[in-house]
Specification:
The structure is a single chain. The chain is an alpha/beta fold. It contains 29 helices and 33 strands. It has a 19-stranded mixed beta sheet, with helices on both faces. The chain has a five-stranded parallel beta sheet with strand order 2-3-4-1-5, with helices on both faces. Strand 3, helix 10 and strand 4 form a beta-alpha-beta unit. Helix 3 runs antiparallel to helix 4. The protein is globular.
Length: 939
């Protein structure tokens, strides 16, 4: 975690040097020497941390690591306090600046001496400036044999003993504890499997591996020899690989490569495993999606993503292990509520469920004794030997993270439990903290997005994809992973959470603070903590103006202020004194205006007033020359001050407003009016939604100059505008998301001349179309397509079925024909299909072999549709059916015990029926067979 607090401080010193070099050469020399001391200490700290992760450090070294962190924070305090004092204007500012420069020089001398002593102490402890392979964590801890992976066992066994004669690589992917190793071991030991193959080998790879030793182990398993066999020790690795390859060329073999952590491993090992057309099989287990993809070499190869168990499976496993001595493994009624809570906290991980259930099976079946375990579950995971394996498996993933991802991962702990976190929002927070830096060819936001994807690919962070307009990934970590994060946060003093029910402060100073519940109570115990990032979460009582003023006085060097959904009506003018503030998120508050003092926040890079009552932006906002992100979604702001058009650093500009009272239509969307030209915003990557007529005739022409755009949304387009857009879009080689809205639902847009770049992954068209533009079928990277109010007469699915990466498809009032046909082999990756407001069609046909990955079907209102789509029962992956405002007969035919179509959907985990409440935007929802639904239908 050296990079967690040292890298941002080094970057701070560099920026300080660049700004102050003209003011005082003597001061700059002192700062430069301070930076050099930090750079020397950094590798020593990495060495200490690596040893700490192996449990190989003394308490004295831990104290030394704490001193380094305190020194780094001290440097940040000195620099930012100096900047704060110099932030005043006029004569007073000049006097304060001179005094501050003298004061900071003295403080830097003290800090340099302190750092020098820290460095010498580190050397005395035997710390070095380099790391060897021994600093890596080995993967000795494996998932245990007790996990009942019977659901996948038959499928995997069938893939081994049946199917193609080509060599097939089967990758089992999932988070630690999900049951990958157990599943592989079950089929590997199966007698029928062993008889089917001529030879077999089980190789545990783990984080620390020696390729030559692995080849030797594979040879011994295959040849059934012992270590040190003739010729083995004196052979080179190339000779060993060649010999093994030649032997396996004529064999039908099965090899298990368990627990792969590095992509390079397969590149080294694959030459020993020939593709011999004898029906050989290779099973790979890994936590990393990217590694599984790198092992795929042909269309025969298969990736199986192991998912968390269903509620029923979790409960069955828990009862089997916890109540093994009870008749039929039945849970006593008095323990059911606590048992459900324990299973929920395990987040579907069989390993964790079985481990905790095994621990509880040794306890008395008494409520008080079980409650003690539940209340101290985090402690039990850390300290109880029975649960140590679960904790170690989770920590392996953390220790394997690249250094730059560790603070990003720990950041999920600043939010409350069971919280869905906006993916782009947490990326912005990483940037404000200094965890992410732009690269030569990538912006900081692009780098942050790569970091998040890496955490998701490693199965450390889960996500829910929201395909609604303008929304992306919502992220979360499951409870046990969060408990692990909190334990690391406490160890590193990374952040603290203050709950109104537990007003306990850990260390006297902490950079990041989350306040849950009552803000006034929390402020009484956190006055002098040196907080730089403040998160106020889950507040029910209104926050007073005086409370916020107190916050601004206590934490004058705040960099991040996160007040999302806080019941706040007034933002005090004193916010302008937070001159170090970079990130201000007021989304969902009740404020009606921003104070003029907002213009003093010269370092502000991120401002979010979405879902507020703000109508106008103050003119002073034009002074925020460092602003990179401005979000106004569903605020009342309709027009931007003209000075914003000159912001040199602006990258993200997002705004729209939906008028819910008039129902969902093109007219319910209101975009943002921009005064003057937008062509000066050369760094702009996102602009949503801008009204075409707001900038005059030059708006579309101005788009030619915005070559870095990745997201573009324009409303109030006419037929002629559609033609003009073609030349601008052709020049946007990075464009990923495109939203086009016509001026009204009768306006037919001519989009034939448009030629979007192949990078386009999201397309949303709110307009009438004469036909599907031919270029859509050539968008090979398109993942999400939404057609609204298109009123096509030609059946659209035949034009879209071969899009290779399409995951989400919405047709909303998009088709006036009578029949839709999903043909065999079409829509290979589609997971969600929405057929909404299709008033004319009465038949949906789904051929066998179409929509093989479809998980969700959203249907209705479609008044002419009398029965379910033909072939829906063949959609093997379908999990959710949502039926909206469909006719009475259609819904009754689906009900258990009375409907002819019930047999087609009874196997689905979720069947829901939704009815709009009059002309409002609210809906009533019912489950399959709900008596309230039946009563409604009988009325």
């Amino acid at each position: 975690m050296a990079e967690t607090f040292l890298n941002p401080i080094i970057e701070l010193l560099l920026r300080f040097l660049a700004k102050e070099i003209k003011a005082s050469k003597g001061l700059c020399k002192k700062v430069e020497s301070l930076k050099l001391e930090l750079e020397i200490i950094q590798p020593f700290l990495r060495d200490a941390e690596a040893k700490s992760e192996r449990g190989d450090v003394s308490d004295a070294v831990k104290a030394w690591m704490k001193q380094v962190r305190q020194a780094a924070e001290g440097i940040e305090d000195v620099i930012d306090d100096y900047r704060y004092q110099c932030g005043f204007s006029g004569l007073l500012g000049q006097i304060k600046s001179c005094k501050s420069r003298f004061s900071i020089a003295s403080k830097i001398d003290d800090l340099k001496d302190f750092l020098h002593r820290i460095k010498e102490t580190g050397q005395a402890f035997g710390l070095t400036g380099s790391l060897d392979s021994s600093s890596r964590i080995t993967g000795d801890e494996q998932e245990d044999e007790f996990v009942d992976a019977y659901l996948m066992w038959e499928k995997l066994k069938g893939m081994l003993v049946e199917g193609t004669s080509s060599r097939q690589i089967i990758s089992l992917v999932g988070q630690g504890g999900i049951g990958k190793t157990t599943l592989a071991r079950m089929v590997y030991k199966d007698e029928e499997v062993r008889k089917h193959f001529d030879c077999q080998a089980w190789i545990t790879v783990s984080q620390l591996y020696n390729t030559k030793e692995i080849i030797k182990k594979m040879r011994r398993d295959v040849f059934l020899t012992v270590a040190g066999s003739a010729g083995e020790e004196n052979s080179t690795m190339e000779e060993l690989i060649q010999h093994l390859n030649e032997y396996l060329e004529t064999k039908r073999y099965v090899v298990i490569l368990d627990d792969i952590w590095q992509m390079e491993f397969w590149e080294k090992i694959k030459y020993a495993l020939p593709n011999n057309n004898n029906g050989s099989r290779i099973i790979v287990t890994t936590r990393n999606d990217g590694i599984a993809e790198s092992c795929r070499e042909s269309s025969c190869d298969h990736i199986e993503n192991l998912q968390s168990w269903s509620k029923e499976q979790r409960w069955e496993l828990f009862c089997k292990k916890a109540f093994r001595s009870e008749p039929e493994n039945c849970c006593p009624e008095v323990l059911k509520e606590m048992s459900y809570e324990i299973v929920r906290k395990c987040h579907g991980l069989p390993l964790a469920i079985a481990a905790i259930a095994g621990l509880l099976s040794c306890k008395n079946k008494a409520e008080y004794e079980w409650k003690r375990v539940v209340d101290n579950l985090s402690y039990e995971f850390k300290e109880n030997p029975r649960l140590a394996k679960v904790s170690n498996i989770l920590s392996l993933s953390y220790h394997d993270l690249p250094h730059q991802l560790k603070p990003c991962f720990l950041y999920f702990g600043v939010f409350q439990e069971d919280c869905l976190i906006d993916g782009r929002g947490i990326q912005q927070l990483w940037i404000a903290e200094g965890f992410v830096e732009a690269k030569k060819d990538k912006t900081s936001m692009q780098v942050a997005e790569e970091y998040l994807h890496e955490l998701i690919n490693r199965n450390m962070v889960s996500f829910e994809f929201d395909d609604r307009i303008f929304l992306g990934k919502s992220c979360y970590v499951h409870d046990m992973m969060r408990d692990f994060i909190l334990s690391r946060q406490n160890l590193l003093n990374f952040s603290q959470i203050i709950d109104e029910n537990e007003l306990v402060v850990g260390e006297s100073k902490c950079r990041r603070l989350s306040i849950l519940g009552n803000m006034e109570k929390a402020l009484q115990v956190v006055k002098h903590m040196g907080v730089r990032s403040l998160f106020v979460l889950n507040l029910s009582e209104e926050v007073s103006k005086s409370s916020l003023v107190t916050v601004f006085e206590n934490f004058k060097l705040l960099k991040i202020l996160h007040l999302v959904d806080v019941p706040l009506h007034v933002l005090p003018k004193e916010v302008g004194n937070l001159i170090c503030l970079k990130h201000l998120n007021l989304k969902g508050t009740k404020i009606q205006k921003l104070p003029k003092s907002i213009g003093k926040l010269r370092d502000l890079q991120y401002l979010n007033i979405s879902n507020t009552l703000v109508h106008n932006l103050p003119k002073s906002i034009g002074k925020l020359r460092n602003l990179k992100n401005l979000f106004l979604f569903n605020s009342r702001v309709r027009e931007l001050p003209v000075k914003i058009n000159k912001f040199p650093n602006l990258q993200q500009l997002g705004s729209y407003f939906i008028i819910e009272k008039i129902g969902y239509s093109i007219n319910s969307w209101t975009g943002l009016k921009i005064q003057g030209e937008v062509g000066c915003l050369h760094n702009l990557e996102t602009i949503l939604m801008i009204e075409e007529d707001s900038g005059g005739a030059s708006l579309i022409k101005d788009l030619d100059k915005l070559r870095k755009l990745r997201k573009l949304g324009i409303s109030k387009l006419t037929r002629e505008d559609g033609r003009k857009l073609g030349s601008s879009l052709k020049k946007m080689q990075y464009l990923e998301n495109l939203y086009l809205l016509a001026i009204n639902e009768d306006e037919v847009l001519d989009l034939a001349p448009i030629c979007p770049p192949p990078t386009l992954s999201f397309l949303s068209l709110h307009c009438r179309l004469e036909n599907i533009p031919c270029w859509i079928s050539n968008l090979w990277n398109l993942q999400s397509l939404h057609l609204f109010f298109s009123r096509l007469t030609d059946e659209p699915l035949k034009h879209l079925k071969n899009l290779p990466n399409l995951v989400v498809l919405t047709l909303f009032g998009a088709y006036d024909g009578e029949e839709l046909h999903c043909e065999e082999g079409g829509f290979r990756k589609l997971k969600k299909l929405s057929l909404r407001d299709l008033n004319g069609f009465n038949v949906v046909k789904m051929d066998v072999g179409t929509l093989p990955q479809l998980e969700s079907l959203d249907l209705g209102p479609c008044p002419q549709l009398k029965e379910l789509p033909y072939g829906i029962e063949c959609l093997s992956n379908l999990k959710t059916l949502l039926v909206r405002d469909m006719p009475r007969e259609f819904v009754l035919d689906l009900q258990p015990g009375r409907g002819s179509d019930y047999c087609k959907i009874k196997h689905l985990p979720s069947v829901l029926f939704s009815y709009q409440r009059g002309s409002t935007s609210k809906y009533d929802q019912y489950k399959l067979g709900d008596p309230n639904l039946l009563d409604k239908l009988e009325k």
